[in-house]
Amino acid sequence: MSGRIRNRQWAAKVVEAEEAAGLIGPGENVGMSGFTGAGYPKEVPGALAKRVAVAHEHGEPMKVGLWTGASTAPELDGALAEVEGIDLRLPYQSDPVSRAKINEGRLDYTDIHLSHVAQRVWQGIYGDLDVAVVEVSGITEDGRLIPSSSVGNNKTWLEQADRVIVEVNSWQSEHLEGMHDVYYGTALPPHRRPIPITHPADRIGVPHLDCPLEKVIAVVETESPDRNGAFTPPDAISEQIAGHVLDFLELEVAAGRLPRELLPIQSGVGNVANAVLAGLENGPFHGLTAYTEVIQDGMLQLIESGRMEMASATAFSLSPTAVERFNRDAAAFRDKIVLRPQEISNHPEVVRRLGCLAMNGIVEADLYGNINSTHLMGSRIQNGIGGSGDFARNAYVSIFVTPSQAKGGDVSTIVPMVSHVDHTEHDVDVIVTEQGLADLRGLSPKQRAERVIEHCAHPDFRPALRDYFERSQRSAFGLHTPHLLDESLSWHQRYVRTGSMR
Amino acid sequence: MSGRIRNRQWAAKVVEAEEAAGLIGPGENVGMSGFTGAGYPKEVPGALAKRVAVAHEHGEPMKVGLWTGASTAPELDGALAEVEGIDLRLPYQSDPVSRAKINEGRLDYTDIHLSHVAQRVWQGIYGDLDVAVVEVSGITEDGRLIPSSSVGNNKTWLEQADRVIVEVNSWQSEHLEGMHDVYYGTALPPHRRPIPITHPADRIGVPHLDCPLEKVIAVVETESPDRNGAFTPPDAISEQIAGHVLDFLELEVAAGRLPRELLPIQSGVGNVANAVLAGLENGPFHGLTAYTEVIQDGMLQLIESGRMEMASATAFSLSPTAVERFNRDAAAFRDKIVLRPQEISNHPEVVRRLGCLAMNGIVEADLYGNINSTHLMGSRIQNGIGGSGDFARNAYVSIFVTPSQAKGGDVSTIVPMVSHVDHTEHDVDVIVTEQGLADLRGLSPKQRAERVIEHCAHPDFRPALRDYFERSQRSAFGLHTPHLLDESLSWHQRYVRTGSMR
User: Fold this and answer.
1) Min CA distance, B478 vs chain A (Å)?
2) Which UniProt keywords apply (chains A, B) (predicted)?
3) What whole-number distance in Å separates Cα of residue B23 and Cα of residue A26?
4) Contact, B228 vs B37, CB < 8 A?
5) Closest CA relative to residue A294, chosen from A117, A119, A71, A75
6) What per-residue confidence (pLDDT) applies to A358?
7) Which of A279, A343, B114, B335 is the most exposed place for a label (fewest CB within 10 A)?
8) What is the pLDDT of residue B2?
9) Closest CB to A355 among B103, B190, B354
10) How far apart are CA A229 and CA A37, in angstroms?
11) What is this structure's pTM?
């Protein structure tokens, strides 16, 4: 019995990863932990992938339905996709191998709002959940599970699965205990009650996950780091974007449309998001809060510096140095961070009530304010919508950020018509590039187009966008949202044909 | 002092409509009552339109910003659009004259989620609200306003406007008093609290609207019917669509995914919606409820027959004969109907909590489950998104209905790629045409395409859709959502060129 498994009955179930993986059958649906590279099981997926490879070598079909919180890591998504061991993947992925398989048409992927997953699984939409494979950071004396660096859908997996495999990862900080808030009050309609959160700090649940011992078919001990990348300092483009966002927030406060301490921040993951968080460090704002999916380095820093009072999320996504700082000062962070199940961290009800300021990255935006977050050239999946829809639709202000160009200037991220829509014109308030910021609130489509072209597009692409917009206003089928349908996707066609939109 | 104005101070403010309209200045923003042709002011808008026409004859510019609940009627939208008296129109319209002006590029229109309007106006996004023009059905002894046949945004207009004009319409039933539930508990973040509704019947507010007398600049007495069209019995196509929807609901109950009394129904307006409601009359379901925007004839009938126990909405939209029945049996309807402000009838928090079954009509759907609710051929606005986004995104099951063809068979409503997106692939559960029903829940894009083609498309268009889908899978840029960008909008292009997609 290791120090992390403080209950004898649970300790008695410890086996090797290979044995545990052997308990998962072909065709089964498997719900695994993991959100943004944090808290995913480290060993069972790899052992399962080996089993799949062996089965395939013997000509035996073997695939599983793979459900997670969100993205995981090469040891999970990558390993299972590599051996073609996944039948249907949901609700989000960002793995290069998975992505390639999906785009080759060899792996079915259903890309859904992260807040929808739990209710859909309860509803039985994806079939039965056969096995849960959940990483925890420990097991208490009375047999409750101490969650790991992400909560994700773990509560749902443990409740819904017929059989449960638990990985206890002693690499995870012991200081995580007490930081989680697992709410057991959700239900299917007509039995739903208000989610009683009115501030990001509110704790409405319990710090542990419950799982009946009789469902547990294996416990595996691991000691492996999360997929923690090194922190990249913001580049010039990201800093310019962040600067525009910060100017906008200051103007909103000055206009009386936002309180001085802002409203709870939701921030997507990535360079630009980190740059905005870094900018907040030096800006005029104090008493900040976050109600978001993921706590990145930038947010940890805001807490350390005292700028941010409270951050609610469902997962960490920290660099190795930030993890070190977290472990060193865990006590100081304990009352400033709450990790919740993703059905709560992303819940439309709470996002709307708190009035989140949602900031998310995109693939491309069009003249009229439609956003593509997921597809390259209309067909090729990048990652998925993740939580951006949960937040953008219900946010107080929904902000979308992107450099104005991609692929070394061959791609304009501002196009006549997006090749796929993830956030409609009705849900997009503000678009920001390094060129500037377009506040689209309250504008008609044509008014939006002018702002998007002049404030957001790269100067190289502005003349062509203006030309398209002007000609559209002369000969479109209607002048509410003027488009020339034989040209609207021509920039993408040109890219597919020549490798450049230019 | 007429019988409808039971307070002397309010009665002392009665003037003619022309005088009241004279109190509205050029360039002002005017918030008018009205939702789906119910409860809009009947006389001041026409008088205002006459003023605008005279001003324009004298070469004086005169336009107002026109904000409403949703659609109104020829006497309001039509009259003001006809004289080009509208600057910016929001949040929804369905008037032929307005629509023509918008599509000619002569009228700016911003088409927004109906649940977003109140918070946006409070936020100040559209500028100051100068004048409210609100129809009521009476004024109480103590000077409170008895709402009319719609509530819409009236609470917000009365709170936010600097000056208020009230129309008291004695045509409206006196029995409306007591039927409304005006919730004064909403706020801007960070001051929001849970909306305490857990059942469509819950009353959480007060039956009257408040308005400080000192803001009231005019009271106008009218006696005019709402825009109540005659009820058209369902046609064969609508009945077939309704049949598929009812079969689906029965299967969901049988599978244990819906309770026997279903969940609160939200139903868009129109023939197909009415056919579904008519179908429920003879189906196996009892104890039904509705949490919706509008109470149409079909819903009134369900209440009369005892099938429906409770309907919550923000407006009526009844035929003249249904209005008669309503007035005759008003007492019987009083405890079965609640009319709420649209910020509550469409509130994402409540829609999600109650688990609404959302049924909305569309313009077109594509292979991958994206929905266009608003635009013809990508550019020409039809009406607007209305509340369909408020409900579809947060619903328990979001169902979209349409005949498989339009324009006498020249248009397929199932197309390779929609020309505008109002509901993304992530928000669309079920698509229904007279051909059949495609349950898209849990499917990958390519799996969805197969169902949409085989279950929903008209047989005349199926071969071309299959051909597009097959060729896309051979040569698209990615095989997650295979598209051929040079063909994806070609059906719309053909229609614009030749008047037919065939």
Assistant:
1) 4
2) Hydrolase
3) 75
4) yes
5) A71
6) 98
7) B335
8) 59
9) B190
10) 9
11) 0.98
Given a cut of 70, the residues of chain B with pLDDT beneath it are: 1-2
Q: A161 with A129: CB under 8 angstroms?
A: yes
Chain B residue with CA closest to A90: the answer is B442
Give dist(CA B49, CA B43) in Å, integer: 10
Can you give the C-alpha Rg of chain B in angstroms? 23
Give the one of B126, B193, B259 whose C-beta lies nearest to A198's C-beta.
B193
E-strand spans in A108-162?
A: 108-109, 131-139, 145-147
Cα A365 to Cα A378: distance, rounded to the nearest angstrom: 13
| pLDDT tens digits along A466-485 | 999 999 999 999 999 999 99
pLDDT digits (tens, 9 = 90+) for B256-312: 999 999 999 999 988 888 899 999 998 899 999 999 999 999 999 999 999 999 999
Half-sphere exposure at residue B97, Cβ-oriented, CA atoms within 13 angstroms: 15
From residue A372, alpha-carbon distances to A357, A369, A384, B236, B292 in Å are 19, 10, 10, 39, 30
Q: Which of B355, B394, B420 sits opposite A190 (nearest CB)?
A: B355
**pLDDT given at position A327:** 84
Provide φ and ψ at B82, rounded to 5°. Answer: -55, -40
Which residues in chain B are closer than 8 Å to A190, comparing Cβ atoms? 199, 259, 263, 354-355
In angstroms, the CA B401 to CA B432 distance is 5
3-state secondary structure A205-249: CECCECCCHHHEEEEEEECCCCCCCCCCCCCHHHHHHHHHHHHHH
For residue B500, give the amino acid letter. S
Q: Which residues, 6+ apart, have CB-to-CB distance to B212 below 8 Å?
A: none
- The Cα B205–Cα B183 span in angstroms is 4
Six-digit token pair at A368? 């009229």
Contacts of residue B367, defined as CB under 8 A and 6 or more positions apart, other chains included, come to B414, B415, B416, B417, B445, B448, B449, B452, B453, B465, B468, B469
Given the cut 0.95, state whether the ipTM is greater than it.
Answer: yes
Nearest CA to CA, how far is A259 from chain B (Å)? 8
Write out the two tokens for B300: 């009134």
Contacts of A120 in chain B (CB under 8 A): 441-442
- Tokens for B320? 């003249």
